[in-house]
Write a structure and sequence with these properties.
It comes from Natronoglomus mannanivorans. There is one protein chain. Helix 3 links the parallel strand 4 and strand 5. The chain is built from 11 helices and 14 strands. Helix 8 runs antiparallel to helix 9. Helices cover about 45% and strands about 15% of the residues. The protein has a domain of about 210 residues: 3-Layer(aba) Sandwich (Rossmann fold), CATH 3.40.50.720. The longest helix has 21 residues. It is globular and about 55 Å long. The site of NADP nicotinamide-adenine-dinucleotide phosphate (NAP) has 24 residues, from helix 1, strand 2 and strand 8.
């Protein structure tokens, strides 16, 4: 690294994980250049960043963002909860292509790309995949939906960047939990704490605290092998167990019943048809996503542990700060 204060370029700096990553980098003495859009909410606490304004496909903005930096953290991305499939591909795949082209054209240090655990999955026929089998980095799965396929395509672009001489590592967080996340975290807390919610969804996933994901991302920068992929996972829990553990910590009312998997799977084709006819997306449901939602999507981060020294804290360790944020933000 050059000089006394290393410089990082961060795409997605205004997002949930990006905000936590920037907070840690600033505390560690980094100078940060963040990419934001004209309408992005930069928030007061993001003031110490040097901002470059532009879209993730804006090549000129990206070249200025990454020029001469010691590290590039590429987190900008979008899912079907927020955008149509075309936009998801444009931002996730073409945005990654633009970031890599900018890196190729400038002098940059290592790039750490934040993909998703969703590109990995235990494969095989039901009931094998509905059991508690645990996936690792080698379990590359057929993508389901635009989000996973765009992330898988972006991963291939990053791998090619390394094959052609670039330095990059890919991290794959599972479901990230922590202060500032209006989606998964809020849904889980509502499910666990609202006495009116009587039923938890079937299936389960790997829940990881955002501070652990930040640790893993920084460890990938320092210790990861070029071209390697690292799952950053946490506790593997059924949704029923997640809500029960949150409720027991917070003295809430966990849902007493589980929605039958068959009901979710049956809803998928109907919601998909509604979406096609009305143009209104009923996320996350089409037939394939509905099937996926009822599975146990469990992961191992053994590789990250062995090669990066990655560890994670249990759900309960992340709850005090997360609950304080949730309660204060109403
Ligand atoms: N959260 C999770 O559970 C999770 C799990 C696995 C992987 N990931 C991945 O981790 C990354 C960060 O996730 P997150 O939860 O922090 O997401 P987030 O809160 O939705 O933040 C997304 C970020 O991407 C930026 N962005 C979106 N479209 C853009 C565009 N066209 N041009 C420039 N910037 C754009 C957003 O900027 P604006 O502020 O302008 O909207 C925001 O900074 C994503 O790539 C996501 O796929 C997240």
């Amino acid at each position: 690294m050059t000089g006394t204060a290393p410089t990082a370029a961060v795409t997605g700096a205004t997002g949930f994980i990006g905000t936590h990553l920037c907070g840690r980098l600033l505390a560690d003495g980094w100078t940060i250049r963040g990419l934001c859009r004209p309408g992005s909410d930069r928030g007061d606490r993001r003031a110490p960043l040097e901002w470059t304004v532009g879209d993730i496909t804006d090549r000129a903005a990206l070249e200025s963002l990454v020029d001469g930096v010691d590290a590039v953290f590429h987190l900008a991305g979008v899912g079907l909860w927020r955008a149509d499939p075309e936009t998801v591909h444009r931002v996730n795949r073409e945005g990654t292509r633009a970031v890599l082209e900018a890196c190729r054209s400038r002098s940059v240090g290592r790039l750490v790309f934040t993909s998703t655990a969703g590109t990995r999955r235990v494969t095989g026929q039901e009931p094998a995949w509905s059991s508690a089998a645990v996936a690792d980095e080698t379990d590359v799965a057929d993508p389901v939906g635009a989000y996973q396929s765009s992330k898988a395509a972006a991963e291939r672009l990053v791998d090619s960047y390394v094959d052609s001489g670039g330095d990059a590592v890919t991290v794959h967080p599972t479901a990230v939990f922590g202060p500032g996340d209006e989606r998964f975290t809020v849904r889980l807390l509502e499910l666990a704490l609202d006495p009116k919610r009587l039923a938890a969804p079937p299936g389960g996933g790997s829940l990881v605290g955002v501070s652990d994901v930040v640790d893993g991302t920084l460890a990938a920068l320092e210790e990861g092998g070029a071209g390697e992929h690292y799952l950053l996972a946490g506790d593997n829990l059924t949704y029923g167990a997640m809500t029960a553990r949150v409720a027991s910590h917070a003295d809430g009312h966990p849902p007493r019943f589980r929605v039958p998997a068959a009901a979710i799977r049956a809803a998928g084709p109907v919601a998909g048809a509604v979406g096609r006819v009305t143009g209104v997306r009923v996320f996350p449901f089409d037939r394939d996503m509905a099937r996926l939602a009822t599975r146990h999507l469990f992961y191992s981060s053994r590789k990250a542990h062995e090669e990066l020294g990655y560890t994670y804290d249990p759900l309960e360790a992340h709850l005090p700060e997360t609950l304080a944020w949730y309660r204060s933000s109403g």
